[in-house]
Amino acid sequence: MSSAKARRAAALTELAAEVHDCFKCPRLVAWREAEAADPPKRYRGQDYWARPISGFGDPEARIVLVGLAPAAHGANRTGRMFTGDRSGDWLFAALHRAGLANQPTAVSRDDGLRLRDVYIAAVVRCAPPANKPTPEERDNCLPYLERELEILDRARVVVALGKFGWDGFLKAATTIGIPTPRPKPRFGHGAEAPLDDRRTLLGCFHPSQQNTFTGKLTVPMIDAVFARAKELAAPSH
Asked: Would you give the DSSP letter of residue 79?
């Protein structure tokens, strides 16, 4: 491992430990623990993570995905972003088709999944009621994303999974000095916003059941976003 990669990996590990011990938002703490204490029948008897979720992936990633927040019975249960729910089924299948993951499934933290050139983050790190964090909860959590973006200094593409991820990333980017367009670029599937001479923001509909079951997001649509992300992230681009 190169010294730079080791430095990034150590910084991400240190940040993850801090994320895992966060209790900043009383409503989210209560919700994540209540959902773990009374899970659906299919998950009863399982040991829930029920703590904030850190990002994960390749410390040398040139592509960073930014989601909304953990699912109550997905990442809040398994302890890893997009792991153990239908959204993750879609996302990791697409990453595998794109050659960015070593397997198409994600069921637990120790299932052998490895990401290649990709890191997955989120705007909010605790499962929120109705998937709707408050503005205060978002702002409490954004410093974690800001620090991830600073550590992941090889990133060339940010893929925002949904409008919340798009807006959250732009807010974080402004705080840490990443140039953002004015007027603020509008989110849309396939939307593309150059940030500076080396970084680009891409929009992708969130792979939630609400989008995938209704056909708002299809396999060709998500595959096209990751194909474009790889093109923009290529060193020669």
From this structure: S
Which CATH number is 15's domain given?
3.40.470.10
- Return the residue matching tokens 């205060």: 136
C-alpha distances in angstroms, 115 versus 60, 120, 159, 160? Answer: 11, 9, 15, 17
Question: pLDDT (tens digit, 9 = 90+) per residue, 95-146?
Answer: 999 999 999 999 999 999 999 999 999 999 999 999 999 999 999 999 999 9
Burial profile 12-31: b = 16 or more Cβ within 10 angstroms, e = fewer? beebbeebeebeebeebbeb
Chain length of the chain:
237
CA separation for the pair 108, 136 (Å, rounded)? 30
Q: How many angstroms separate the CA atoms of 33 and 63, rounded?
A: 32
Number of domains in the chain: 1
Q: How far apart are the first and last CA of the chain?
A: 25
pLDDT in tens, 131-189: 999 999 999 999 999 999 999 999 999 999 999 999 999 999 999 999 999 999 999 99
Burial class (CB in 10 A: 0-12, 13-18, 19+), 112: exposed
pTM: 0.96
Distance CA 76, CA 73 (A): 6
Predicted confidence (pLDDT) per residue in 38-67, tens digit: 999 999 999 999 999 999 999 999 999 999
Q: Say what the pLDDT of residue 198 is.
A: 87
The residue range of the domain holding 58 is 3-233
Query: Strand 56-57 and strand 200-204: pairing?
Result: unpaired
> How far is it, in rounded angstroms, from Cα 55 to Cα 218?
25
Q: Can you read off the two tokens belonging to residue 55?
A: 């990002």
